[in-house]
Amino acid sequence: MKKHVVVTSLLLNTCLFGGAAVAGTNPGYGQVLAALDSGKLIVTERSLLSQARNGDSNAQLALAKMYEGNRDDERTAKWYIRSANNGNAEAQFQLGLLYIDGELVEEDPETGLDWLRMAAAQGHVSAQMVHESLKNEDFFIGC
To answer: Which of 15, 59, 93, 99 meets the CB 3.0–4.6 Å disulfide criterion with 51?
Structure first.
């Protein structure tokens, strides 16, 4: 029987390190969270799209978060992937969790661990903790 790794980004974000700690790992991420909380991010969607299409990984991350909040799975995955491919550690972390959980993308724990490793190598503290835990365990269950 295949063993599954169970990780959810919401559970990890809440239980292990809280939103404030994640914001410290990526300079643009705190602004994204504040804009999402205030409802002001939708007003900037056009400018974010322009910046994201020009390769701005923070704008790509912001779009992924915005679309995730709107439950637009296809756009969420698309912008996480673009941001992660452009070296954004937070996007790499989030994408790693998505691959491990099989959310928005096909489940692939090995690919998920690769994305977590990349984020961890950039100093993303949460990715370091999760990667270390997962590479040594068959299962990982939140709090």
So the answer is: 59
Superfamily of 9-135 according to CATH: Tetratricopeptide repeat domain (1.25.40.10)
Model confidence, pTM: 0.69
Query: Distance between CA 88 and CA 101 in Å, rounded?
Result: 20
**Cα 90 from Cα 98, distance rounded (Å):** 12
Distance separating alpha carbons of residues 82 and 55, to the nearest angstrom: 8
Tokens 């020009």 identify what position?
54
1-55 confidence digits (pLDDT tens): 222 322 333 333 333 333 444 444 444 556 656 665 666 655 478 888 999 999 9
Helices and strands, counts by H and E, the chain: 9, 0
End-to-end alpha carbon distance in the chain = 25
